[in-house]
Amino acid sequence: MAARHPVFALTYDLLAPGMDAAGAGEHRRRLLAGLSGRVVEVGAGPGRNFSWYPPEVRQVVAVEPEPYLRRRALHAAGQSLVSVDVVDGVAEALPVADGWADTVVFALVLCSVADPDRALAEARRVVRPGGALRFYEHVAADSPGWRRAQQIADRVWPRVAGGCHTHRDPVATIRRAGFHVDTLDRFAFPPGRGAGLVSTHVLGSARRDPDGVTGPPGTHATEAGTQVD
Asked: Of 66, 108, 204, 220, which has the fewest beta carbons less than 10 angstroms from its beta carbon?
């Protein structure tokens, strides 16, 4: 299932420590705070999340299709304090049984999956009824001008950035899949640098219906400033 983007993968791996130092590490901590039980992390990249999983997490299945990033994730898993199994796979066909996970995690990955709706349908399949979805993503900009710039950039940008699209709305995709969004924080990152193609981010949590039946899209999320933990 390899998705080979060697130049982008190496570039991302080199830039990730600086991004974490600039605030992304704190976003990862918030993303994963309070988790327990079994977790599926979709698009684990080089494993930057692994050190942030709390000890109550019993097992993480980290799915990563890019060979270089998967090797880096395997190295990070060996240093993790929780049990992490790094496996080959894609978001649209997760190698996990129905209802296996207590939580599914997406972190800076829904921009690059080939079919976001199918990826979220897979997330809903593998999480147990009543289980959680945690997400941290860059999204379409707030201003019309920057949204137009993103639409133009997306004609070329995915070809050179590992499939990354700048103009997606992952929160809408999450709701279409039958998840109810509970918390939603929208913010600029990096802070203090003004608007940009990938500067608008969201971080939040959602939940699958306890009865396992898809309900209407969630409408009760608490907007900007809400902490996941």
From this structure: 220
